[in-house]
């Protein structure tokens, strides 16, 4: 019984550690995007951070007071687009392997949901 429980604990520990390891054995990088509002001027981003909390903190610090995180991502690129029409709450986000693709996805999403003046507010890419 002890041997079975011991092996279960070891297996659970190993599996928990795999959650942050990529296909080639590299640790995954985390990133985040932050803005001050859909029509605001401030934005912040982070990439290649060691964990989600750090990624969010860096993006929020870069953006400044009154900002909030709109997207976390763990690999590749992410983008956030928002309709700039007065009072609009329409937005879109996208993730992809390249910044151009992530931005295009975010813009398409914003437009499909009724945005008439969508612009990319923030984007970033992890290098690992």
What does this structure look like?
By secondary structure, the chain is an alpha+beta fold. It is built from 3 helices and 6 strands; from the N terminus they run H-E-E-H-E-E-E-H-E. The protein has one domain (27-125). It has helices at 2-18, 52-63, 99-112, and strands spanning 30-35, 43-49, 68-73, 77-83, 91-96, 118-125. The strands form 2 sheets. It has a 3-stranded antiparallel beta sheet with strand order 2-1-3, covered by helices on one side. A 3-stranded antiparallel beta sheet has the order 5-4-6, covered by helices on one side. A hairpin with a 7-residue loop joins strand 1 (30-35) and strand 2. It is flat. It starts with a helix and ends with a strand.
Instruction: Give me the side-by-side strand order of the main sheet.
Output: 2-1-3
Structural class of the secondary structure composition? alpha+beta
Low-confidence stretches are 1-26
> In one word, what is the shape?
flat
- Measured distance between first and last alpha carbons: 42 Å
Beta strand %: 25-35%
- Sheet bearing the most strands, described? 3 strands, antiparallel
Q: H/E element string?
A: HEEHEEEHE
Number of helices: 3
Radius of gyration: 18 Å
- Please report the total strand number as a whole number: 6
Subunit organisation of the chains: single chain
| Mean pLDDT value | 83
Q: Which percent bin holds the helix content?
A: 25-40%
Number of domains: 1
